[in-house]
Amino acid sequence: MKKTILITCLVALLAAAPAMAQVDLSNYVALGDSLTAGFVSGALMDFYQDRSYPAILAAQAGAAGFEQPLVSEPGFPPILELVHLVPVPVILPVGLIPGAPVNAALPRPYNNLGVPGANLFDMIFTTGDINNLLAGNTDNVMHDLILRDGIHTALEQAIGMQPTFITVGIGNNDELGAVLAATPIDGVTMTPVDQFAFLYNNAIGALVTNTSADIVLMNLPYSTTIPFATTVPPFVDIPGLGLTPLMGTKGLLTPNSRVTLLAGGLIAQGYGLPGGPPLPEDLNFLTGEPGYVLRPEEIDIIDDRVDAFNEIIAEVAATYGLPVFDTNEFIAEIVAGEAPSYGGVVITADFLLGGFFSYDGIHAQRIGYAMLANALVQFINAEYGSNIPGVNMAEVLYEGDWQTPGISPAGAKDAVLSREAFEEVYNLFAPKLGNAPRIRRPQSDRSDLPTVDLRRKPRSTP
Amino acid sequence: MIAKNHRHALLVVAALLIMPSLTWGSGFALFEHGNRGMGMAGAMTAVADDPSALFWNPAGMAFQTDEGVQVMFGVTFIMPEQTFTGSAPYPGDGYTDSQIEQTFFPAHFYLGIPVNDRLEVSFSFSSPFGLGTEWDDDFLGRYISKKADLFVFDLGVSMAYQLSERFAFGIGIDYMVVDIDLSRDIGLINPFNQRVTDVADVRLKSDGINSAWAWNAGLLWKIGSGFSLGAMYRSEFSITGEGNGTFTQIPTGYPEFDAAVGSFLPFDGDVPIEATIDFPDFWTIGLSWQNEKWTLSGQYGVMGWSSFQELPIIFPENPEFSSVIPENYEDAYQYRIGGEYRASQHWAIQLGYLFDETGQPVESMSPLLGDGDRTGYTAGLSYYTDRFRLDVGYMYLETDGRSTGGNSIDGFDGFYEGNATLAGATFTIKF
Q: Model confidence at A447, in pLDDT bands (50, 70, 90)?
């Protein structure tokens, strides 16, 4: 009898749940990395931060006071621009002097706590001090800029905000380094799976325990499908010889190998060509020079790691009853050319011409982020029965970029992505050699581990 | 070294962009084959007592042998209006535009020659399919369609025979000629400013005579006491047409981008195209009653739009642009009610009402045709003598507003609403 009553009550509660479902974005906090921060063309810059997916989502939901760590033009580091398209695309930073923080005095944490370069470990444990940045030190620039108080991590600041709504899009940097350096190494360029499981479970557990927010988790796309890895073919068309495979340090490249965007400049210098030096394939631990070739088996290793992370995200979501936005599927559709058409215009993942990705070949540009925001709006509406209006894509498609760059003959170089342009970006996202976080726990008993108590009241910054 | 890869990327993008999703529904079927008939809402299958029977029921000609040689010709002016209201994500809430107002004037011509008092041979010229749409230059749907014109001309020969005093049949063959002219822009992301930019205007135009054969048949039974029963069938037909695609570059102000676009779009001359269109069949069945002063008629019909499942457009010399567009139309019914009152020896008036369901699924609604169910109110006035007849017809046709409901296959979502005013005159001379 008691059991029946209990079951009846449960059924009543469950039945009532959808009707009661109401999503409140009035105090929305976004946790994540560069994708969350609105990082575009190698820079964090206010024009694009205002067009980050969390900012669009908040605006669509009518949430006022969504604060971000804005950086003035030309961004930090200085944003990349396309200088030439033909005969070969040339992409350079717009200048040498970066922009400055313009919202650093906000006396509370930002709503957008996405930290470019941050991995899962950073979200939980890494702090930043704005005074360090203002003193001219750029060793921890993004954390300094965004977390500021030198004490509280992104996760702690999120909890301290006591948000009504949270999105968590973290984990890209737990494997992106393997693509950027074209070298998958467990524990160096990729976070070990059991460590990811432990940290993810604890981070989400802390959010669930210490806030009353609705929480949406976002899983991870395949980093091997971004233009950085898919633009340069593994062969060259040599007059008289026809299509000739490039030569790498491990031998001739197979047709299903991928060459990173960064290799363009080297190939132009003769690397990988008949008679030239072979293209370095893997990360050089002595010099820190990245590799340039992803062999099919390496692609599989990285994709498998993404699959493993996504499985963990799904498991943790199931444990806490949280919805997961399928970022992986969202990007896969764009990569496959199956993105929705906008009045006959189809946005693809092609470098420069596709419309989704920015000049760094890694991050979206504003059109891509707006599409992501729109997909999130649809997901949230379906999940919570809310009625947040969709993004007006016509405004986005015709808006144009932060400036209309002139075509300058200066700086024309025979490179796809200039070395100097890329270095700034690479420094932010490159695998952290030597200080890769290692917290290893037995995988078998991870669910029994106590949740890390991360609750601390964040102090307001000066 | 990546130029080749870019070219490929551009080709893929362009292939997606070049093909309009060519769609038509009731909007391209024309039922204006005589202005007396239009005044009676086209409820003519069981009436069929003037040469417009050659469209509505060829059997009717067999009962007109005592009229002598008849020549009937006329024109109907069609003035459609349509407004579009956008919804998210594209072109977005609050966006509105209206079609440029155009007037179309499909003509009809019939010649009926009695061979004896039971057999009549007839020749006809009319447009069973037609119409067009045109939008402003800055219309946000311009990558789907800026201007579209389609006309099908039907040259028919038909024979009608009276089996008995009460019963007749008619059969005919139709030589169908199609003429198509479609224009749109191609929009690409300009990599210099990351903005959708018009890079080319594409015009696909049929060339020469693209034709197909079709047939039609009808039965008319004068039951008695003024009642008649009629049935008509017009066959489906498929036209594989040839034409040319003309690409005209639109300078973007970015010479390097223009050069890249010029490397993959054929701006240096026309390119051949081929397209196959499956036109629907159409049947009607009707009942009428008449006496000295009155004719009352009703009919039901179905247009077999389910024939229109896909539209292949082939570029024989540029296969990368070829595509097959899903259309997935469904059969659509219609009913028509009309009446005529012959007030005197010389004057008559007609009135009518029609409902014409659309065969177009919401996903296929587009700037080329955003159709909906149609309701028409008609009226007509006739003056006639023994040798001469003048019919003036009028119709107000309202299209039910319909929303794509976020399902547009072109990604152009919103609400289409429209109406059309039709008016025309038909002359008949009897020799």
A: very low
First-to-final CA distance of chain B:
78
Per-residue pLDDT tens over the stretch B340-353: 999 999 999 999 99
- What is the rounded distance in angstroms from the CA atom of residue A461 to the CA atom of residue A458? 9
Q: Do A344 and B257 touch (CB under 8 A)?
A: no
Distance in Å, alpha carbon of B198 to nearest chain A alpha carbon: 11
A272 at the B interface (CB within 8 A)?
no
Handedness of CA B161, B164, B168, B169 (dihedral sign): negative
Give the closest-approach CA distance of A462 to chain B in angstroms.
38
Q: How many residues comprise chain A?
A: 462
- Percentage of chain B lying above the pLDDT 70 cut: 94
From residue B374, how far is each of B59, B77, B150, B430 by CA, in Å?
Answer: 28, 18, 20, 35
Contact B108, B391 (CB under 8 A): no
Per-window interface: A 24-83 vs B, CB < 8 A = 82
Strand partners, B312: B324
**Chain B CB within 8 Å of residue A405 CB:** yes
From chain B, the residues in CB contact with A415 under 8 A are none
Interface size A-B, in CB pairs within 8 Å, comes to 158
Q: Is the ipTM of this complex over 0.90?
A: no
B13–A contact, CB cutoff 8 A: yes
pLDDT-wise least confident of A49-58, A420-429, B325-334? A420-429
Nearest by CB to B143, which of A264, A345, A366? A345
CATH code of the domain occupying B3-430: 2.40.160.60
- Nearest 5 degrees, angle CA A248-CA A250-CA A254? 65
DSSP A459: P
For B93-120, what is the mean pLDDT? 93
Q: Where are the domains of chain B?
A: 3-430
How many C-beta atoms lie closer than 10 Å to residue A368's C-beta? Answer: 26
Chain A 328-357, CB below 8 Å of chain B: which residues? 337, 340-348, 350-355
Task: Show which of residues 45-84 on chain B sit within 8 Å of chain A, judged by CB atoms.
Answer: none
Q: Considering CB atoms only, which of B143, B259, B260 is closest to A343? A: B143
Domains of chain A: 23-232+290-435 (3.40.50.1110)
- Dig out the tokens for A454 from the structure: 């991360």
Can you read off the two tokens belonging to residue A249?
């340090």
Report chain B's C-alpha Rg in angstroms: 24
A241 and chain B in contact, CB less than 8 A? no
- Asked if residue A408 has pLDDT above 50, the reply is no
Tell me: the pLDDT tens digits for A177-232? Answer: 999 999 999 999 999 999 999 999 999 999 999 999 999 999 999 999 999 999 88
